[in-house]
C-alpha cells in the first residue's frame, strides 16, 4: 500500500486553481485550502469537522451535541488508526489481518485502497 498523499487529487471546487471568484474578489478555496490539490481524507475530515464546530458556535443549543459528536468521531478515527497500526505489525500471510487492514484503511483513507486477496 502506498500513502494516499502520494497521489494528488485535483480539487473539483476550484479546478486546481486554489481560488474561487466572489463579488469581492478571489478567495482561497475552502476545500483545498488554496493548494489546488486535495489533502488526504483525514485532513479533509478534520477541516470539515472544525467548520461544523465553528458554525454551531459555543453558545447555541446544538453546540454541546456537536462537540460530543466531534469527540466521538475523533475517538473512533484514533482507534481505527491504532487498529491499522497494530495490523501492520502482524505478517501479511493471514487473510483476516489483510481484511482488518483493508476495512480500517477504507474508513480512514490513509492508503490507496487495494482489495485484499480472499
Briefly summarize what is shown.
The chain has 118 residues and is mainly alpha-helical. It has helices at 41-56, 63-88, 95-108; strands at 9-10, 19-20, 27-28, 37-38. The longest helix has 26 residues, at 63-88.
Summarize the structure in words.
This protein is mostly helical and 118 residues long. It has a domain at 59-107. 47% of the residues lie in helices and 7% in strands. It contains 3 helices and 4 strands. The strands form 2 sheets. It has a two-stranded antiparallel ribbon. Strands 2-3 form a two-stranded antiparallel ribbon. Strand 2 (19-20) and strand 3 (27-28) form a beta hairpin. Helix 1 runs antiparallel to helix 2 and helix 2 (63-88) runs antiparallel to helix 3 (95-108). The longest helix is centred in the middle third of the chain and has 26 residues, at 63-88. The radius of gyration is 18 Å and the shape is flat. The two termini are 17 Å apart. The relative contact order is 0.14. Residues 1-6 have low confidence and may be disordered.
